[in-house]
Write a structure and sequence with these properties.
heterodimer; A: mainly beta; 4-stranded antiparallel beta sheet; 11 strands; B: 6-stranded mixed beta sheet; about 50% strand
């Protein structure tokens, strides 16, 4: 297992376009998390899955954001009608059932122009 | 609500010297975990060290150790024999041991190791 993989690494999009990011967690981890990190800040929690169930969503996750984990394996994060304020690093992490150890992916850096 | 505060935006240390990064947190939970993560420039976040709140003994990982003061809600990171590869952003984070599993991060401390 090579860790948590995220694709793409970088995405530049025009304002108003839709974008989708993918995260492949560590295979034996049933918990998957999405975070957003803006420049000079710590990551902020967006949403959390246990297996295929989305159990928690932050207020940061507006109705333009949707996340799925259809088979409890990989996850996608879609942003519709992107805005310049969506420009950030989107981080995915996974953890074991005990939830006491988290492995992060390299992130997807989104730039909205 | 959980909060994590890192009061040192930037720090520097001479190679081979020791540096301590500060972190305070606030939580109403009795069972929780504390972490220090390292994020090198343009690279992924890596776990440095983890502390379980119910353990009184301070965690140690090679050159990295913590000073966990539960009553004061303080969780500082000491890096001994600093190396150039330690240059990175360091984030303190907390997670409740029950219910919500979201990590709450501080704003980070940018550490520069000077040759």
């Amino acid at each position: 297992d090579t860790g948590v993989s995220q694709d793409p690494r970088h995405k530049i999009t025009k304002r108003g376009q839709n974008v989708t990011f993918r995260c492949d967690p560590i295979s034996e981890h049933n918990r998957l998390y999405w975070y957003r990190q803006t420049l000079g800040q710590g990551p902020e929690f967006l949403t959390y899955f246990q297996n295929e169930a989305q159990l928690e969503k932050s207020r940061l996750l507006s109705d333009r954001f949707s996340a799925e984990r259809p088979k409890g394996s990989f996850s996608t994060l879609e942003i519709q009608r992107t805005e310049q304020g969506d420009s950030a690093m989107y981080l995915c992490a996974s953890s074991s059932p005990t939830g006491d150890g988290y492995t992060f992916g390299s992130g997807t850096r989104l730039t909205v122009v | 609500a959980q909060t994590v505060t890192q009061s040192q935006p930037e720090m520097s240390v001479q190679e081979a010297e020791t540096v301590t990064l500060s972190c305070t947190y606030d939580t109403s939970e009795s069972n929780y975990y504390l972490f220090w993560y390292k994020q090198p420039p343009s690279r992924q976040m890596i776990l440095v060290i983890r502390q379980e709140a119910y353990k009184q003994q301070n965690a140690t990982e090679n050159r990295f150790s913590v000073n966990f003061q539960k009553a004061a809600k303080s969780f500082s990171l000491k890096i001994s024999d600093s190396q150039l590869g330690d240059t990175a952003m360091y984030f303190c984070a907390q997670v409740s041991g029950a219910g919500s599993y979201q990590l709450t991060f501080g704003k980070g401390t940018k550490l520069s190791v000077i040759p």
